[in-house]
Each structure stands twice: as structure tokens, then as C-alpha cells.
Amino acid sequence: MNSYLPVIFGMALVTYLPRLLPLMLLQKLKLRPSMMRFLQLVPYTSLSILIVRGILTSDPDMVPAAIAGIGVAGALAYWKGNLVLSVLSGIAVSFLVITYIG
Amino acid sequence: MSHNRKELIRDGMVAGSPLILGYFPIAMAYGLLAKNTGLTIVDTSATSMLVYAGASQFMFLDLVRAGVSAGSIILATFLLNLRHMMMSASLSVNLKKDTAGFLPVIGFGITDETFSVLSFNKDKLSLPFILTVNLIAYGAWASGTAVGYLVGEVIPQALQESLGLGLYAMFAALLFPSFKVNKDYLKPALLGAVTYIAIFRTGMLSSGWDIIAGIIIASALGVVVMGKEDNDE
């Protein structure tokens, strides 16, 4: 078996730098209000994108379970506000859909 | 803000606990797939412990199977993980003072999932909270990988898949309540969804570029639509 360690070190470096550099650099800068606003919106746009992408790119068999789990977890979190309970319920619903419908 | 250290660690454990449910089974699947791809346990653990980026690790296995060159693998990894730059930038403006000096450690731990948990607890972003969340996630990912490699499939398929979907459930459970706090935040979320669907449908951007372009375009549109003013507080 070959060792992939050199490739893995390369992958680690190119993954680490984009995670680290903005953290180090942006704290030193005085950002314009529009830039601050932009960065403040990133959590909302990126989570929404990750959810939509998760549905669009998942295996067609898994789409109903994904949508059901996401819907239940989101709705419960919205009305009850308990993160752990919401995620567990979402997982349970996904499991039921996969087992009995999927 | 008068959170003491113990409280922050406890809050971090609560906030980070869904990450265990999501990360451990996916990491197990990764460990097993890496073994079946012919990687050694050292290489497999090294990917999870050093690269620590799920989607790109699965892609790595695909590229290894396809016999793709080292340079191409590294470039593809860079593109796929570049989205964390936006997340790191977004987190940077909310970090508490006590994080200074620990940025190299905090930065290492930024994933889609830890970013989500952290950015939706932005009033708690002091060192004990962040490190607790990051350590839980990292521990689950690293240990799940080793267990998957060594033990194999111990979680039934349907349960494993629903636990994996749990990460998307977590994204929704973090995002949706913010609309109750301020319904203005529906706008960037909808912009993100519409922008990504447009990018995905046209198929112009390859995997990696699609996410980061979506984040940048949707957030910029959000600034245009919502204005520069922060009416959150």
C-alpha cells in the first residue's frame, strides 16, 4: 500500500489556511459598515445554501427523509426553541421515513 | 455578559452535542470506505485529524480510486474547502477578546457545522465556549473515523443515514428560530436558497465554487436588499 501522507499534508495546508487567515487578518482591520453587514449575513445565506444543497445533491431515495427531517427539526426549533430535542426529532422522523416509506 | 467559565463550557457541551450524533456515524462511514479504498489506518486517521473536512475527505477517496495526481487532489481540496474562508471571516468579527492568541487553534476547528453552531451563539463566542464546541466536533470526527476503520459497520444502515441527515436537521434547527427573533433574516436565507438553486440548475460552477459563489452573491444581494444598517440590536 502506498502512503498518501505527502498529499494529505498538502490537503491539510490548503484547508487550514483559508480557515485561519481571515480570522487573523480581519480582526486587525477596521471594516466598512457594508462589509460588516455582509459578514453578518453569511451565517444566514450559508446555512440556507447548505440545506438546499443537501437536498439537491442527496440520493433521490433519501430526498423525502431529508425534507421530512429538516422540516420537523426546523419547525420544532422555531416553536419550542430546544436545539437538541429538535435535532433528535428530525433524526427520528428521517429514520421512520427511510424505514417505512423510502 | 456575566457568563463564567463553567457555564460557558456547559453551554458549549449542549450546543455541540448534536455534532456528535451527526459526525460520529459519518466519520465511521468514512473510515470504512477509506479502508476499502486501500488506505492504511495511519493515512485514514491523518486525513480526519489533519485535513478535518468531511466532504473533501470523501472526495479524496474518489480521486484516489480514480488515480488522480497529487497536485489535482490538493487543488480540488482547496476549492471545495475555500468556503470556510467566508465562515472564518464572518466569525472573526464576533470573537471575544479572550480568543486572542488562540486563533490558530480556533481556525483549525472551523467546519460548516461548528461554524453554524458558533455563529448562532454569537453572544457566547469566548474561548471556553468555542473550544468546547470545536473539541466535541473534532473528537467525534477523529474517533468515528478510527472506529469505522477498525470495527466497520456497527450502526444499521437506515439509522446511519438518518443520523447523517441529522446535520441538515441541525442547520434548520439553528436557522429557523432566528426568523422569529428578526424576520428580516428570512431575506438572506431566501436569497441563499434562490441563488444556490440558480447556480445548481445552470450547472456553470463546479463543486466547491458553487458554494462559495452562492455565499458571496447571496450575502452581497442581502446587503443591497436590507441596507447597511444593523437593526438587530
Question: So how many helices of chain A?
Answer: 4
Tally of discrete structural domains of chain B: 2
| Tally of contiguous helical segments of chain B | 11
Quote the beta fraction of chain A. Answer: under 5%
- Fraction of helical residues of chain A: over 70%
Beta fraction of the residues of chain B?
under 5%
What's the SSE pattern of chain B? HHHHHHHHHHH
| Rounded Rg of chain A | 20 Å
Mean pLDDT of chain B: 92
Spell out the helices and strands of chain A N to C.
Answer: HHHH
Shape of chain A: flat
> What structural category do the secondary elements of chain A indicate?
mainly alpha
- End-to-end Cα distance of chain A, whole Å, is 39 Å
Largest interface: A-B, 73 and 98 residues
- Average residue-wise pLDDT of chain A: 92
Biggest β-sheet description of chain B: none
Number of domains of chain A: 1
The total of beta strands of chain A comes to 0
Secondary structure layout:
The complex is a heterodimer of chains A (102) and B (233).
Chain A: H1 5-26, H2 33-57, H3 63-80, H4 83-100
Chain B: H1 5-37, H2 41-51, H3 54-65, H4 70-81, H5 83-92, H6 103-108, H7 112-119, H8 127-151, H9 157-181, H10 186-202, H11 209-226
Helix pairs in contact in B: 1-2, 1-3, 1-8, 1-9, 2-8, 3-4, 5-7, 7-8, 10-11
